[in-house]
Design a protein that fits this description.
The protein is mostly helical. It contains seven helices and no strands. Helix 2 crosses helix 6 and helix 3 packs across helix 4.
Amino acid sequence: MSTNTTVTDLFTEYQKNCHTKLTLEQFTTLLTFFPSLLVIAADGVIEEEEWIYVRYISRSMAETFIDDFDDNIEVSDLKKLYYSDLEYLVDSLRKWENKFLVALKEYLEDNPELKDDIVDIMYMFAEASDNDSIQEEQVIQEVMERLNIEEED
């Protein structure tokens, strides 16, 4: 997977605002999971029970790096880093939404094989939620349109 200039520039800006400890590669994983955060926040608020899904996202992101670590402690530490960044993003979602989606769209032009995974993850979180799925479906469709992802038949 290649990382383009837009993603690198976004990472630099994000670091200045969030003071993240993620590497560029780890940030790129955060970028690809970002649409699922939008689905969770589809109604504009993340309720207490939805934070369970935010924790699940942080675990899922950390586990993508499981082969890079010698033990589960490092995976647990990465999960905490991701969770911290997700908390920050929830608090400033509107500030970052457009920037993340623009960077992700460009990233997907170089990595189109990730499009199906992004859609699958968004639907997974929408289905896991007990809330009104109409709002979540609207968010998914808007994100797919913004990322230039075609609906499969």
